[in-house]
Amino acid sequence: MGNADYVNDTENSTHRVAIPPPQPFLKSLNNALKETLFPDDPLRQFKNQPPARKLVLFLQYIFPILEWGPRYTFNFFKSDLISGITIASLAIPQGISYAKLANLPPILGLYSSFVPPLVYAIMGSSRDLAVGTVAVASLLTASMLGREVNASENPALYLHLAFTATFFAGVFQAALGIVRLGFIVDFLSHATIVGFMAGAATVVCLQQLKGMLGLDHFTHETDVISVLRSVFSQTHQWRWESAVLGCCFLFYLLLARFFSKRKPKLFWISAMAPLTSVILGSLLVYLTHAEKHGVQVVGHLKKGLNPPSIMDLAFGSSHLSTAIKTGIVTGVIALAEGIAVGRSFAMFKNYHIDGNKEMIAFGMMNIVGSCTSCYLTTGPFSRSAVNFNAGCKTAVSNIVMAFAVMLTLLFLTPLFHYTPIVVLASIIIAAMLGLIDYEAAIHLWQVDKFDFFVCISAYVGVVFGSVEIGLVIAVALSLLRVLLFVARPRTLVLGNIPDTKIYRNVDQYPNTKNVPGVLILEIDAPIYFANSSYLRERLSRWIDEEEDKLRSSGESNLQYIILDLSAVGNIDTSGISMLQELKQNMDRRGLKLALANPGAEVMKKLNKAKFVETLGQEWIFLTVGEAVGACNFMLHTCKPKPTTDETEKWSNNV
Amino acid sequence: MGNADYVNDTENSTHRVAIPPPQPFLKSLNNALKETLFPDDPLRQFKNQPPARKLVLFLQYIFPILEWGPRYTFNFFKSDLISGITIASLAIPQGISYAKLANLPPILGLYSSFVPPLVYAIMGSSRDLAVGTVAVASLLTASMLGREVNASENPALYLHLAFTATFFAGVFQAALGIVRLGFIVDFLSHATIVGFMAGAATVVCLQQLKGMLGLDHFTHETDVISVLRSVFSQTHQWRWESAVLGCCFLFYLLLARFFSKRKPKLFWISAMAPLTSVILGSLLVYLTHAEKHGVQVVGHLKKGLNPPSIMDLAFGSSHLSTAIKTGIVTGVIALAEGIAVGRSFAMFKNYHIDGNKEMIAFGMMNIVGSCTSCYLTTGPFSRSAVNFNAGCKTAVSNIVMAFAVMLTLLFLTPLFHYTPIVVLASIIIAAMLGLIDYEAAIHLWQVDKFDFFVCISAYVGVVFGSVEIGLVIAVALSLLRVLLFVARPRTLVLGNIPDTKIYRNVDQYPNTKNVPGVLILEIDAPIYFANSSYLRERLSRWIDEEEDKLRSSGESNLQYIILDLSAVGNIDTSGISMLQELKQNMDRRGLKLALANPGAEVMKKLNKAKFVETLGQEWIFLTVGEAVGACNFMLHTCKPKPTTDETEKWSNNV
Q1: Over 90: is that where the pLDDT of A131 sits?
Q2: % of chain A exceeding 90 in pLDDT
Q3: Total domains, chain A
Q4: CB hemisphere CA count around B639 (13 angstroms)
Q5: A39 occurs within a structural domain
Q6: Strand order in B560-564's β-sheet?
Q7: One domain for residues B213 and B282
Q8: Are A573 and B190 in contact (CB < 8 Å)?
């Protein structure tokens, strides 16, 4: 399509760019708040319902069990029973291991697998999530509280602070859900979580060297250098019995996982492996009296259900601020894992999970937990995956697990007396190795270098610094990237795709053609204060460079600049000033500015700021094609004006 | 154009969306860094030049005076002489006033108008900027240093800390310029500055009540409540002589400004008014001996040029951290004002200012200043405007001003002995009232409510809290807005503009028509970790709502979803996962997903992540029009598939 067509087209095909009708301020504020805080419109189902129905819906909203409970069938129960028992067999050894990792009494791991799953079963909306403690939050509790209070010197205070931290984690989680700020969790990007989890897993594995080598003394730091120095400074203390036993069990566990991975039907081999390890290990120690030959054992576990701990919450303690800080950090980490797990399985089975509602459920679970001798729980990935593979249908599997743990607490705790610590260590290591997702890291490198950089920073920060340092670095880098995107938007030159009226980026489509005398630029971000100075300079540089190029090649002068605003989602007053200055600058140089396809928001503000008047409504076009058509029409009908060289006049002024 | 046309078009008009060729990693990293840190390509002029020329260019780059100096003419000098003398007449009384505001010896105000302008004249690239001290930075110095050291009890330490703060302000400013992080200043948006300046002006005016009422004791706080309490708790101390004198001079100054504003030719009336006020006031006091009747005077000013102060820099002081903090905060504020002023006048006269280079000039000016008994200087708006109106041509006007101040320092300081403080107070108030730009605030309200909110927050923060609180609130709100934009992108439904192949937002263009069976959505922000969860939910909700609507109206089923990615500037791995999940989810519901116009960066990443394969290259279109065409072609040639109601199957599962 040649230039002649454009000229013919111009008259009849030009459409006005609409200026949206003004909205009352309160209405638009209300809309903006609603979109920000209630993007999922949770009140939609309440509309046009009688009050009684509203109450039922409200109760079902808070307690999803009321919604699915009445429809529960015996067939579902059979599935849930199997999966519940499977996850209980995983929960018991893992619970004890993670409680040791948090420097808490091992029995707390069992307590934490009893009450919180019951709360979640009533309030949670995921059908696949299995509730329990997690390694990373346990490690974080140990490292953050351990800096203030020594767990072995002052176990009671340490325990009370752990309950208090759990309480505040719950309060914080519930509060985030209630004020609908759940999107804070979104700021932990996938890349951050991959790096962070791998780092935390590395750190947790390193910590297990204590148990594996049967060491008595160990550093309180978590970074790799301190740990290795601590391990290798006491080589004479290494217990070979412990190490050999540990390696055997680790081999067994990894083998079991290897088989399960190859045949998903054999998931139960991997799920049962920790419990069989514990049983085998305990039997072995009991029969050989290995506890007297350097193999440390769990020791006495108290029989009986969770004692209340509401009176242990240390609100008056001088370490309260540490407890609050620990609670918030572990709470957010736990939330991020739990929500991500819930969401992934919901996607598999195609049901919907409301993030904010889940947060309230997690929060309540931890608040109730902190009053019943539990520490921080969430929905761990490994346990939920086993639950899913075992065919769970509803949250009843959590109730089954809770009952299994209850029976263990009531009758079976003495059996764990001889459980060797080294078996627990190998259970943890086996679980942690699965968290180091190097494939995901390779994928990040291939797809997005910056994401990979964030991921590696989080890993290095966690492994060589501390868990918090890694997290802060990764979140800061992620935010920096968002800010950089806005501060340094790209400006693209567009060219005409031959035989069409379509204009696209000349770098992406090398076969595009320039339109003589017209420079078409696209801005691919909102125009905000953070980038308006940059855009002012960058757009001038594009124009300068284009003029230089045309001058050196002896082609016709530049006469029109078309700014494609399709990708400019919004503009603020600094951005409008930038456009006004650009317009003035171009007027002085004898160039004409045209805008193409400004969006509703942009058009509204340009109109209010009178920029539409200044520019002339006739210079705002619906598409780049129409803008080019109009420019060409002018170029061919009006006689071309020479570019008044005011620029040069000014720069020679001095 | 009916559907039939689309079908006919589909075959021959579809264009492939290009996947940009892969770039070597180091090359793309290099490009990205260059665009981020060197958007103005400062090395462009050095390319292809012989070494000797390069050296000359380099020296001219560092010292712009070498560039314009040789072309300087006598005609320029005549203009610069007049403007230089004009700004000197403003600089002398303002300098004394602002130094008093900073709780520093008044003579420092004169020192600061001597050395820094000379440095700037050599290194600065603005032709219109007049260098001097500013009220806001003076007040900030007083409030931040005053919290640590009492200026009246320990004047020497206070003075040394002020020099040290100036030194660090200079170092910080120069460092920002050298590492090319000048864009940090851009994060102070126009709205922030309007609110902040108005707040600071209000606070400064309130501080002048001390001088106006002739009070001896005054609060060290700057917030309105403390100040008013301090003023009204000592009503018996008010001196009516002082107040009457002050009001008269204030009236005179405001009247002069009023006339100058109405006739820009009379700018000199306003410019000279402060000096005539000082002369009149001093004469009045000298003749009536008013200093013995409650009118405070400046008192003795030392004769002679700036003494060196390099040995006074208090690097070893225990208050060093306060000095550094003060330096950084005042340095950034001063930089923001100076750069903005330089840029606005450069725009008027159409020459270019390199922000990073200016920062180095400001930094050097303050480093040299701190070694020669000057405190923080920048390019104040009022003085530069007078300079501009007086017809200055180059930075020589700053040199003229410096010489005029030098002569004053050498010979005229005794004349200021009887200058009444109250006259200085009215000079400050008159200058500050001009900074309260309520018209700009009204404009913000009309154009952009959020900007207005930021502006008012800054104002309220400064007036009721402190200068730093106001600043922190405003910057945090501005950043929050950028983050919110990314965290909550808008998703727009597009419709067909009748008789075209153009698709636009149905809210902005009410005459658009839906395409039966096809839902077209546009995302107007990059898809990042911060918004991918939100987009996942929001897109599902659009689809749900559309299906509900079609079902209730009995229309044909929804079959195609077209995502217009024109405005999606970038995507990260979280965003790609979101698209993959969306695709899976839609497959399960029997819907087809098509993408329209993904950009180069997005296409590259989708390809690397194998999403292009998963989706099928044939489902990625260059324009929405082509995508709709293809969908319509399928709808009419293939027999419509019933939507497999897997959704319902799943949700009835329990």
Answers
A1: yes
A2: 22
A3: 2
A4: 1
A5: no
A6: B503-505, B491-496, B518-523, B560-564, B592-596, B620-621
A7: yes
A8: yes
Q: Cβ of B506 under 8 Å from any chain A Cβ?
A: no
Residue at token pair 């009226």: A501
Give the pair of three-digit tokens for residue B455: 């502006």
Same domain? For B50 and B116 the reply is: no
Q: Give the least confident one: A604-613, B46-55, B325-334.
A: B46-55
pLDDT over 50 at B653, yes or no: no
Task: Say if residue B58 is in the same domain as residue B83.
Answer: no
pLDDT, chain B, mean: 84
Same domain, A400 and A494: no
DSSP state of B522: E
| Mean pLDDT, all residues of chain A | 84
What distance in Å separates the CA atoms of residue B410 and residue B398, rounded to the nearest whole number?
Answer: 18
Question: Distance between CA A26 and CA A193 in Å, rounded?
Answer: 39
Is the domain of A457 the same as that of A530?
Answer: no
- Residue B444 is assigned to a structural domain of this protein: no
Hey, which bits of B545-639 come out as E strands?
A: 560-564, 592-596, 620-621
The 10 Å Cβ neighbour count of residue B151 is 20
Looking at residue B187, what DSSP letter applies? G
The string of pLDDT tens digits covering residues B392-418 is: 899 999 999 999 999 999 988 888 888
pLDDT digits (tens, 9 = 90+) for A489-506: 888 899 998 888 889 888
Backbone angles phi, psi at B451, to 5 degrees: -60, -40
Residues 6+ apart with CB under 8 A from B642: B557, B590
CB contact under 8 A, A447 and B576: yes
Mean pLDDT of all residues in B543-569: 85
Least confident of A26-30, A45-49, B63-67: A45-49
pLDDT at A9 exceeding the cut of 60: no
Are B566 and A567 an interchain contact pair (Cβ–Cβ within 8 Å)? Answer: yes
> Encoding tokens for residue B467?
């200068």
In a domain, A101, yes or no: yes
Instruction: Determine, yes or no, domain membership for B8.
Output: yes
Where a domain ends, among A483, A501, A525? Answer: A483
DSSP notation for A476-507: HHHHHHHHHHHHS--EEEEEEPTTSS-EEETT
Same domain, B339 and B429: yes
- Contact present, A416 and A96 (Cβ < 8 Å): yes
Task: Give the per-residue pLDDT at A550.
Answer: 84
B528 in the same domain as B586? yes
* Nearest-CB residue to A529 (from B190, B447, B526): B190
CATH of the domain at B586: 3.30.750.24
* Residue B353 structural domain: 76-435
* Lowest pLDDT segment from B343-352, B378-387, B636-645: B636-645
Interface of A with B in 399-458 (CB under 8 A): 443-444, 446-451
Give the domain-ending residue among A455, A483, A511: A483
Interchain pair A482, B483: CB under 8 A: yes
Measured N-to-C along each axis, helices B115-123 and B355-371 cross at an angle, to the nearest 10 degrees, of 150
- CA A496 to chain B, closest CA, distance in angstroms equals 13
| Residue B14's pLDDT band (cuts 50, 70, 90) | low
Please indicate, yes or no, whether residues A180 and A324 belong to a single structural domain of this protein: yes
Nearest CA in chain A to B649: A350
Inter-chain CB proximity A603 and B508 less than 8 Å: yes
What are the start-end ranges of the H helices in B240-319? 240-262, 267-288
Residue A112: what pLDDT? Answer: 94
pLDDT per residue over B438-496, tens digit each?
888 998 888 888 889 989 999 999 899 887 788 888 888 888 888 888 888 888 899 99
* Partner-chain residue, chosen from A444, A489, A623, that has the shortest CB–CB distance to B502: A623
Contact criterion met (CB < 8 Å) for B18 and A508: yes
Tell me if residue B479 falls in helix, strand or coil: helix
Q: Is the pLDDT of residue A367 over 90?
A: yes
Report helix, strand or coil for A519: strand
